[in-house]
Predict the structure of Vacuolar protein sorting-associated protein 35.
Amino acid sequence: MIADDDEKWLAAAIAAVKQHAFYMQRAIDSNNLKDALKFSAQMLSELRTSKLSPHKYYELYIRVFNELGTLEIFFKEETGRGCSIAELYELVQHAGNILPRLYLLCTIGSVYIKSKDVTATDILKDLVEMCRAVQHPLRGLFLRSYLAQVTRDKLPSIGSDLEGDGDAHMNALEFVLQNFTEMNKLWVRMQHQGPSREKDKREKERNELRDLVGKNLHVLSQLEGVDLGIYRDTVLPRILEQVVNCKDELAQCYLMDCIIQVFPDDFHLQTLDVLLGACPQLQPSVDIKTVLSGLMERLSNYAASSVEALPNFLQVEAFSKLNYAIGKVVEAQVDLPAAASVTLYLFLLKFTLHVYSDRLDYVDEVLGSCVTQLSATGKLCDDKAAKQIVAFLSAPLEKYNNVVTILKLTNYPRVMEYLDHETNKAMAIIIVQSVLKNNTHIATADEVDALFELAKGLIKDFDGKVDYEIDEEDFQEEQNLVARLVHKLYSDDPEEMSKIIFTVRKHILAGGPKRLPLTIPPLVFSALKLIRRLRGGDENPFGDDASATPKRILQLLSEASTVEVLSDVSAPDLALRLYLQCAQAANDCELETVTYEFFTKAYLLYEEEISDSKAQVTALRLIIGTLQRMRVFNVENRDTLTHKATGYSARLLRKPDQCRAVYECSHLFWADECENLKDGERVVLCLKRAQRIADAVQQMANASRGTSSTGSVALYVELLNKYLYFLEKGNPQVTGDTIQSLAELIRSETKKVESEPFINSTMRYIEFQRQQDGMDEKYEKIKMEWFE
């Protein structure tokens, strides 16, 4: 309803303006000055309305403004025809109403200044004073806006044709400042016009009119002759006085932003303390972070665009002033949300990184200031504030691209302490990803310790509580990051690398049962990599107390709290694999006792922890394969371990698994490169034992199905291949007769079942070997007629 009334009132006012403008134009065309003034005054009287909203009033004002341009041209022409400009200036003051009279005065005053019959200073002073007569906020604001518009190109600045005496530019400056002050007062008073229930609407309308006031500051910034001294001593103090004293949130926020945007960067830098001194005096509701962030962004861009400006930043101590000002603002605004205060320090940090990137002490000081502020709030529960902290902590990472640099900032981990678990973990992920992305070289135990403290959100549970709700896939990805990080740690100094491994172990073991299966393996393989680097050197090149010896590192891995802990967290299979890897490394270093200890632990795990039949088969194959490569054992130790392995093989649940495990054990008694590890009799003994088990499998198959099965025949073929292997390796106990008898058995069984490709391939291999030089003697006793 109100909007409809607004439209009707505006339509009526515009119609009246058009009508009066028509008659004014007709009077102008006939050079009738009296009627032109009469109808122009009637047209301007439409601006006296109080019915229109600011938005509609602006539309009406634009219509009138366009018509006044025609009137101004007419006044110029009249003076050219001999009419006295002074008389015109007096004549328009006879208009009946104050508002039309002042609009006409401004119009003729513009022409009067151009005529140079009187100094521009006198006219400007006269006009700005007489405009005080209109105190209605809306009408007065637009009147002064019109005054600023028509006199904008007629100000007596240095270098213009209206320069006048030496102080003329100061008079122009005074005119603009005075007009700005009055316009701001009128603009602020608009908030009190109308009922309180419409306050939000009025604030929105006021916001739409803000540029009318801000244009004055733009004019000030363009005035010739306004140098740094004048700006520092006159312009800025006067503007800030008005900004602070108006005590209006909208005006203060907008005008502070205007100051920052319209005046030169070097002016801001040289008057930084004055500008910042006003910030704590602003209303608590003012969005101070927007103001200060705009200022710091301008200064950062200034520093980036001009290398010559950087010494000025040091000279004026820009960082100290900004840091102090932000502290004062936070102190003054006790209700400032945590997110807002963090945002302030975020912009200060970005400014510092941009301008003082080489001053880590400044960066750390900003972090420390933020810690001081956060200490009053405790851990952040506000998501917005937490996101700002993440951005705050990410800024140095993005700038330096080097976590080692970040580790030098003592207050960095203190800021992270105020994050909740999820946000702390997110920040830890960012840090670890930075290390991996930038291929950062972290080469000392102290750096590793500091890094893992930063990344503890990833490495261990928060307050000892296990998070069972986390998505398993996400958890795996997070721990893979930790594993990759462990592999990235490296030092050329073996002693330092050893310390790094000890440090990583300390942090990883605190990770909880869910993480250990994913984080222990990279620790173990990192230690094994170091052992291989040390292998072949002196037993202890660094002294008796040094930690960088293969034996000391292997003892570390052998301790109950390292690999063995995996058996306590339902990962015995993984623990067994790692023990066997350690045993291989100990063997390579010729540490028999240590190697035997690792095998003992692996055997205990097999006996006590691995109960699943399939897992037992896999584990036993690993044990046999690893044991076969061992060369460090004496006869007694090797026999003990070999006997254990063969015993495990014979006790597997399924007969086929027993058969395969037993014939695999034959390799434990034959090593090509070691003559003392070639026991042909025991090889054949294992193979015959495996054949007896295969016979048992065959008998069970015949009993259950009444015929042979391809599975049982396959066991015979596998055994045949083992015999062929040892025949070629020169085992004297394996003869062609032995192989022939097994081949005959296979022939008899294959008549009962469909022939398999495995059998055919084996037979073709035998035929091929019989035709090779050097192999014919070994294969001559194997008859192939049955194969046809």
About this structure: Residues 2-29 form the longest helix (28 residues). Residues 133-263 form one domain. DSSP finds 39 helices and no strands in the chain.
